[in-house]
Amino acid sequence: MFINMLCVGFGGFIGAVLRALTGICISKLPALASFPFATLIVNITGSFFIGILLTLPQITENPNLKAFLTAGLLGGLTTFSTFTFDTLSLIEHRMFVSALLNVFISVSVALFACYIGTLLSKHVF
Fold it and tell me: How far apart are CA 125 and CA 121, in angstroms?
């Protein structure tokens, strides 16, 4: 159990750093400043990779590797709470179309990315 929690913690550290770096990189592009692209990117990327990882037996059969990659790395990378805060912020700034687009794109594209990840995993790996 202790090793498993260390795996989650180490993976979470890496995922959180990757999320922060994504935010820093996106913030350097002024054209993207009015929409929460960094959150969108990490959530879609995380959804794609969890679709792959949770359909690979070599991942699901190794509890420490699964904990490191899914709850840790992808859990640290993706962020539902930031997604909700970003959407609320858009609403508070009366950017209703952007808020609706954020919800629609985030949910539909992340779901599709997860589906593509599972298909890729089942047919390629």
Answer: 5
Find tokens 């599709």 and name the residue.
112
Are 39 and 79 a contacting pair, CB within 8 Å? Answer: yes
Through-space distance between the first and last CA atoms of the chain, rounded to whole angstroms:
29
**Biggest CA-to-CA distance, the chain:** 47
- In the block, tokens 């950017």 appear at 95
Under 8 Å between Cβ of 19 and 42: yes
Q: Which two tokens stand for residue 91?
A: 């609403």
**R_g over Cα of the chain:** 16
Regarding pTM above 0.85, the answer is yes
CA pair distance 125, 123, nearest whole angstrom: 6
Provide the residue-wise pLDDT of the chain in tens; the chain has 125 residues. 999 999 999 999 999 999 999 999 999 999 988 899 999 999 999 999 999 999 999 999 999 999 999 999 999 999 999 999 999 999 999 999 999 999 999 999 999 999 999 999 999 87
